[in-house]
Specification:
This protein has two domains: 137 residues, 3-Layer(aba) Sandwich (Rossmann fold), CATH 3.40.50; 55 residues, Winged helix-like DNA-binding domain superfamily/Winged helix DNA-binding domain (Arc Repressor Mutant, subunit A), CATH 1.10.10. Helices cover 50% and strands 12% of the residues. It contains ten helices and five strands. Strands 2-1-3-4-5 form a five-stranded parallel β-sheet, sandwiched between helices. The longest helix has 15 residues. The protein is globular.
Length: 217
């Protein structure tokens, strides 16, 4: 490994210590990735993040854990450590579980029987692109889009424009510039739509916009 290449630090949150230990060895064998620590549940993670000087780049987060499960932990991370990219890692392949984790802010969803090469790809992609959607997750999202539509909410012209732009790769600051509005106003539109549409993040906005044909693929 070139000495100038950045090390990406990973944290594993899983109550199965044998699995976590094996996963740590695998990740440490990948170039440019190193496990910072592992935690046995959300509370343990919160304590270690507080005491650890270095903030991880990626967290691999199990869902079914005692004390503080993956859903609760994901909400905490979204609210307090939004720069950390979280990949859910679970045995649960139910569609509603996958969608819930994505809506809470996860950047991808991996099954624990994932091939080592695909795990390496997922880590690389989430660093490079900010997300990783496997075929399983992509199919789940497509299925969610094809569910029966709820009654469409009436939106103002600027809200519609914001929703269309939110479905692109633009940052919120770039959207503000294009709409000739302040970032604070854009934040207001975003939060208002989050509340009205009952979604938690931008993924939820995109799913709603596509499902209800506010934007076209």
């Amino acid at each position: 490994m070139n000495g100038n290449e950045k090390i990406n630090y990973v944290v594993i949150v899983d109550d199965h210590l044998l699995f976590a230990g094996s996963l740590e060895g695998l990740i440490n064998s990948y170039p440019n990735f190193k496990v910072l620590f592992h935690a046995k549940n959300g509370v343990d993670l919160k304590n270690k993040l507080t005491s650890e000087k270095r903030i991880p780049d990626i967290i691999l987060l199990d869902i079914n854990m005692p004390v503080m499960n993956g859903f609760e932990t994901m909400q905490f991370l979204t609210q307090n450590y939004s720069t950390i990219k979280v990949l859910a890692l679970s045995m649960d392949d139910e569609e509603k579980v996958i969608l819930k984790m994505l809506r809470f802010g996860a950047k991808g969803y991996l099954l624990k029987d994932i091939h080592p090469d695909n795990l390496k790809l997922a880590l690389e992609e989430v660093i490079l692109k900010g997300y990783y959607y496997s075929d399983k997750v992509s199919n789940t999202l497509l299925h969610a889009l094809n569910e029966p539509k709820k009654e469409k909410i009436i939106m103002k012209e600027n809200e519609l424009k914001f929703l269309e732009l939110a479905c692109t790769e633009m940052t919120y600051k770039e959207i503000a510039d294009i709409m000739n509005l302040s970032p604070k106003t854009i934040d207001g539109y975003r939060q208002e739509l989050f509340n009205r549409l009952n979604v938690k993040n931008r993924v939820g906005l995109v799913i709603y916009a596509l499902k209800n044909e506010f934007v076209k693929i």
